[in-house]
Amino acid sequence: MSRVAYVNGVFQPHAEASVHIEDRGYQLADGVYEVWAVFDGKLADAQGHFERLDRSLAELRIDPPMSRAALKIALRETIRRNRVRDGLVYLQVTRGVARRDHAFPAPGTPPSVVITAKSVDRAAAEARAAKGASVITTPETRWARCDIKTVGLLPNVLAKQAAREAGAVEAWFVDDLGLVTEGASSNAWIIDREGRLRTRDTQANILRGITRKTLLEVIADAGLTLEERPFTVDEAKSAREAFITGAGTLVLPIVKVDNQVLGDGKPGPVAKRLRELYIQRARATAW
Ligand code: PMP
């Protein structure tokens, strides 16, 4: 019996079912899911899962893809077409397909909806349950491995969207101590009131930016001194200059942090110079 999957309103052979490569679920983990147990072809705990789905969607501000009644029909139909009596039905809803950008796509971009169903062997499950099972323990590291360049970017997506809505290009994350960690898609730098060039060290839990690394060499070659030391939000707001680095923005001068304008509100001389030097070096060494 061949399995089928529901993909955006169409049933496709499971083996060929696919979403676009620029689906935000695939690229940014920008989506939610639910799983219902299926008994006798029907949804178990149906209401609780629907309510959690609505909540998850609302928290991420993803438009509900269809009414609950329509969704129930699609779920039941997927179960039926896969001839599942006892098993699981899986639903995934993402923010849809759009040219890759952390911030939300244009309003009206349709969410992507995928539904799959699979059978489970209840007798085998009962036999396992009768024996009991085991667990191991592991450190709680969820959302705490920002040093890995993972596509699990949902917090970055939400931060970037908040920046966009505030008319800013970037959001700087601030840790429990009030220290800036990094941007949603860039590393953060300031030139503090004493004129010291500063960026957070990479022992901490941030992405080791490649642009950051090269810029450290540029800074050393230019005879400038740098402190790899975190800075507070207040230090950023009272800084002489600030900038961000990343493959997308290169070295981008920052002239405002929250509502605080830095200096005279124009890109500072050091940031401008470092942008020039970085681009020169990157151009000369590109291969
Ligand atoms: N931090 C984060 C969270 C990023 O997504 C990026 C961009 N990839 C950076 C820093 C900058 O890294 P890079 O200079 O390697 O582009």
Describe the structure.
By secondary structure, the protein is of the alpha+beta class. The protein folds into 2 domains: 4-120, D-amino Acid Aminotransferase, Chain A, domain 1, CATH 3.30.470; 125-285, D-amino Acid Aminotransferase, Chain A, domain 2 (Alpha-Beta Barrel). Helix content is 31%, strand content 24%. It contains 8 helices and 15 strands. It has a 6-stranded antiparallel beta sheet with strand order 2-1-6-5-3-4. A hairpin with a 2-residue loop joins strand 3 and strand 4. The chain starts with a strand and ends with a helix. The model has no long low-confidence stretch (mean pLDDT 96). Residues 182, 185-187, 207, 209-212, 245-247 line the site of 4'-deoxy-4'-aminopyridoxal-5'-phosphate. 4'-deoxy-4'-aminopyridoxal-5'-phosphate is lined by residues 182, 185-187, 207, 209-212, 245-247.
Which structural traits does this protein have?
single chain; 287 residues; alpha+beta; D-amino Acid Aminotransferase, Chain A, domain 1; D-amino Acid Aminotransferase, Chain A, domain 2; 2 domains; 6-stranded antiparallel beta sheet; 5-stranded mixed beta sheet; 15 strands; 24% strand; elongated; binds 4'-deoxy-4'-aminopyridoxal-5'-phosphate
Concise structural overview:
With 287 residues, this protein is an alpha+beta fold.
Q: How many alpha or pi helices?
A: 8
Proportion of residues in β-strands: 15-25%
What's the story with the biggest beta sheet?
Answer: 6 strands, antiparallel
Annotated CATH architecture of the largest domain: Alpha-Beta Barrel
What are the low-pLDDT stretches, counting only 5+ consecutive residues below 50? Answer: none
Q: For the record, what CATH class of the largest domain applies?
A: Alpha Beta
Report the C-alpha radius of gyration, rounded.
25 Å
Side-by-side strand order of the widest sheet: 2-1-6-5-3-4
Strand element count = 15
Percent helix range: 25-40%
CATH superfamily of the largest domain: D-amino Acid Aminotransferase, subunit A, domain 2
Structural class: alpha+beta
SSE string, helix = H, strand = E? EEHEEHHEEHHEEEEHEHEEEEH
**Intertermini distance:** 51 Å
CATH fold-level topology of the largest domain:
D-amino Acid Aminotransferase, Chain A, domain 2
Ligand identities: 4'-deoxy-4'-aminopyridoxal-5'-phosphate
Mean pLDDT comes to 96
From the spread of the alpha carbons, the general shape counts as: elongated
- Domains, number: 2
